[in-house]
Each structure stands twice: as structure tokens, then as C-alpha cells.
Amino acid sequence: MSTRALQGAEVAALDVAWVREQFPALKTQVNGIAAAFLDGPAGTQVPKQVIAAIQDYLVNSNANTGGAFRTSRRNDAMILEARAAMADFFNCGKDEVVFGQNMTTITFALARAIGRELQPGDEIVVTTLDHDGNVGPWRALEEKGIVIRQADIRELDCTLDLDDLQRKITAKTKLVAVGYASNIVGTINPVAQITKWAHAAGALVFIDAVHFGPHGSIDVKAIDCDFLVCSPYKFFGPHMGALYGKREHLQRLKPYKVRPSSDAVPERWETGTQVQELIAGIAAAVNYIAELGRRCDPAATTRREALLAAYRATTQYETRLITKLVQGLQAIPGIQIFGITDPKRFSERCSTLSFRLGDHNPTEIATFLGDRGIFTWDGNFYAINLTDRLGLEELGGVLRIGLVHYNTGEEVDRLLAALREFAAQ
């Protein structure tokens, strides 16, 4: 990587008008009012480049792999390009990228393979802050006698209790499963430090970067994690999952697979025929982010450098949005925000925020907002350990606002005005 990329070159301000023009869904209206898509944590909208790539695949490359004819060869070339794109996204080798149905399915498959090597009494550490997709697959190994230990949170700011986590990593620990960022309160975890603690104990590290993917650049080499998984549909792509695995582990571990399928890495981990038109969409999503990066920093020469430039710009922009949102929410009586609210610590969180308003059920608020064209989510978002721990599960969970770089300050203002209207009723 160039010195420019390593030093974090300055980037131009985000051209939000150009960004929004790339996303056809943003033209949606509800009752004659433009929709505000504040539902990104459950899946972002896709740019027209992704739509075009999927359509082009179905017209020009729709065949299975390994055939001795044109469309199959085009398909094979597309998959190689998609691996190269995700390798740039992760900062890894192309043969360290695995595609799959979704993050949860990939994690279950990997957990079963790792479980083959474990013995009764071996331990896996999970956290209270995580989506259950990074808890349930590991807890499923309890039937083999594996012991699951769960690290707690600090309730005041919904961050991991790092002292508790460090205590739970012992000589018996074989794997630590941790999220890069919380999909409910936005907390960003110090995954590189956690990896060092785990490796010092001889344990593997599995990182769920599904929620972090839209908000920050990922560098698996810098983290030194063993596995990292994300979901392209959370960073402007189609509904699939993607896994990074260190080459040595992908080669050593034995996945459950059918006999005729390839024993080569990474194909041995991709069970059955993949949804290949969506893989084409994954490459297009990465290339969209890179195109955004080149607009912010025309001097970016490689796709990796362009991706880093894009995330520098979007992180700055999203920080301004979440600052505006937090300040506005704090002025509404009865609002309780969960997570980090101190602007001086916003580098420790991404632009996802959850709250409650008095005794109102979050579904009631989400319905009120939805009727006004403001799309939000309510519930636990599969982070059930956290809503249980906070005593919110029986109360309907929380209302979640998810801001990404295609959202605007005007949309935040609309949300705040609607919430003030709701609170005044």
C-alpha cells in the first residue's frame, strides 16, 4: 500500500447529491412524501451499479461454473473478480474470500468445522453485545460438551466490559467470537486488542463485522483475526454473506461438503451452487464504494486506496449526522438513549442509535414514523442477549435509527420533528 494510503490522505467533502442519485430507491414516496430510509442496519438500499451488474449477469453470464463454453467462462471470470473485490475490501488474499448464503449460515458451517477439532471442556467466549448470529452457532457446540462463556457489558454506555472479557479468556479458550460493532447500540469494539489477548492464550478469533462494514474500512491484516464475516447487503450490495479466513485455517479445517465438490481453497467452503448473480452484485457494491472514494480523493490509485478514501469521507459525514441526532434526541423529554452519547467518544461508535420514549412500545413509534415516510426498526434485532441484559426484551425492545452516507441532515430534522409530535400527543 502506498504511503498516501497509510498516512490517511485528506479527502474532499462527500458529494451527497451525487450519492443519492446513485440509489433509485431513495425516490420512493409515502403519502406524497419522500421516504427517509433510516433502516440501514437491517439492510441498506443498493446503487444502480449493483442493479445493473445483477441484470447483466442474468443476460450474459448465466451458467454454472467450470463449463467449456462462453457463458460459463464469463461466470468463472466474474467470480474471480468478485473475490478480488472482496479481497481489497478485507485487505487479504483472493483465496481467503468465501461466499455464502448469509452471515449466520456461514458461521454455523464454520462452527461445525471448528467443532470437529474441539474436546469436551474446551471453551468458547462470546459476548452480551453481539447479534445472535455470532452466539447461537457457537452455543450449538454445547451439545458436544463445549463450554460457552459470555463476557458482560458496562450498562451505563453499552460497551463491552473488557476486564470481564479478558478474565474469561484462559488456557481453556479455543475461540473468541466478538462483534466489530453492535447492530443495536453502535458500539465499536477494540477488535485488534481483543485478538491479541485471544492469540496470547492460544485461541482463534472470529469477528462479526456485519454491522461495521457500512461504516468503516476493514483491515484483517492489521487486526490479525483468524476469521471475519460480513454481509454485503449491509454495505449497499445484495443479500449474501462473505467470509475472510486465514489461508492456513481454510486449508486445515475440514468443512462438511459433498464428495464431488472441489477440495481447493476457498471453493471447498462454498457448499453447492452459489447465487452467482448476487456475487456479481457484491463486486459492483465494492466498486461503487471505490468509485465514491475516487471522487473524494482522485489521487487514489488502487481499489484498496479508493475504498479507504471513501470510508474516511463517509465516517466524517456520518459522525456529523449522529452528533445532530443525539443532540436533538436529548432535547425531547422522556427519551432514553442506549450507548455512547458523549461526542468526544464518537470514534468509539458508529452512526446507529437505539432509544426508548417513555413507556411507549417501540412498534407504536415505528408505525407512527412509517406513516410519515420515515423508515425505522423496532425490537431486538437478534441482539437478544443485550435486550435481555438491559431488561428491555419484555418491553418490546427499542426503536433503532440507522444512518449511512446516503442519509441527510434534513432527514434527521424530519425524524426529530416527528418524534416531538409523537411525544406531545
Brief digest:
The protein has 425 residues and is α/β, with parallel strands linked by helices. 40% of the residues lie in helices and 15% in strands.
Q: Can you tag this structure with a few keywords?
A:
single chain; 425 residues; alpha/beta; 7-stranded mixed beta sheet; 4-stranded antiparallel beta sheet; 15 helices; 40% helix; disordered N terminus
Q: What spatial order of strands do you see in the largest sheet?
A: 4-12-11-10-9-5-6
Tally of separate helices: 15
Number of strands: 17
Low-confidence stretches: 1-8
Our Rg estimate from Cα atoms comes to 21 Å
| Mean pLDDT rating | 96
Largest sheet: 7 strands, mixed
End-to-end Cα distance: 56 Å
Q: Give the structural class.
A: alpha/beta
